[in-house]
Amino acid sequence: MSVCTRKDGTVFVQWSENGKKKRKYFGKGLGAEVKARAYNDIVTSHAPRHTSSPIFKDLVNEYLKAKSPAMPAASAENIWYKMSGVILPILGGIETMGMDHGTFDKYVANRAVSVKMTTIHRELSDVRAILNWSVKRKLISNSPMTGYEMPRRDDETILPLAHEEIETIIEHSADHLRRAMLLSYFCGLRPGAVELLSIRYSQVNWSVMSITIISAKKGGLQRREVPIHPALPIREWYEADGENNGGYVITWKGKPIKSLKTAFASAKRRAGVGGRKIPLYSLRHAFVTALLHQGVDLRTVADISGHDVGTMLKHYAHSMDAARKDAIHKLPSLHPWVQENEENGSSENVKK
Q1: Sign (positive or negative) of CA dihedral 5, 7, 9, 12
Q2: HSE of 82 in the Cβ direction (CA atoms, 13 Å)?
Q3: Prediction pTM value
Q4: In the chain, what are the domain boundaries?
Q5: Which of 23, 81, 136, 321 to pair with 344, CA 20 to 30 A apart?
Q6: What is the CATH number of domain 163-319?
């Protein structure tokens, strides 16, 4: 018996019986190949032996084929870039069921030479997601990462940019980066292709002066209305651009752009701002932190920024001191003389 594939991609098992060739067809694609190989293994031998399985690259292709239609284009592109450029050169050719924990230990050792453990953790999280999906689709019987202890993350705490630093970087920025920074700061946008870089003038409601944001899939609201701050010159930009550039607010040489990393790094260097990790995302961090410091309630900040409330509590609890103080100060006094004492700035002479 043998597993074969026709020119049109149809997978079949072929064998001879009583001098005649027979075939059993299983359809097209990786799923058909898996079923054909399993059928071939079972029929050709009653003794237990290693069952062949797809190589990891095939599972990645099937995963992206199934998931990409429901993903933002930028997210699918990001996953494929990470897979083709980093993960597949190391793991792509390995037969999946031949993988074990040692395979992933070697991957960690290989990558640790050039990147941080946090990056490796993210990469292996993608690998694990694909393997788990493949189990659900019955492309493989079990995930070789089950029970694997992921490398410990070494995230660096990112402090929000100070107001003066933001102004200095904007001063040294090209026009497209300046627009991006102002939008990110005044609207709390995630600085990627889904939110910030995809903004068009058609998303602006000029009658109430707000912007409709299609949120990245991070667990918060799918879309949100963000009021336009008086200091955001979006009307001036619109009058200057008109309907050019496909209506995109942020463009470079008349075309929408995919990344601001190079422009932001250059602006920081010209501004002399550095000494710590400062990604463009820190502008969104500054936006949320500033609102919380002003005592804006958690739910409102979460709605505007597109955060999940649980995520807000996890990452911004340190920024809520103003809200806590405001809450305490709103408590009414129990006795008239307490208020009188407060006005005197002392509590030592409270009447008893």
Answers
A1: negative
A2: 18
A3: 0.55
A4: 2-44, 56-136, 163-319
A5: 321
A6: 1.10.443.10
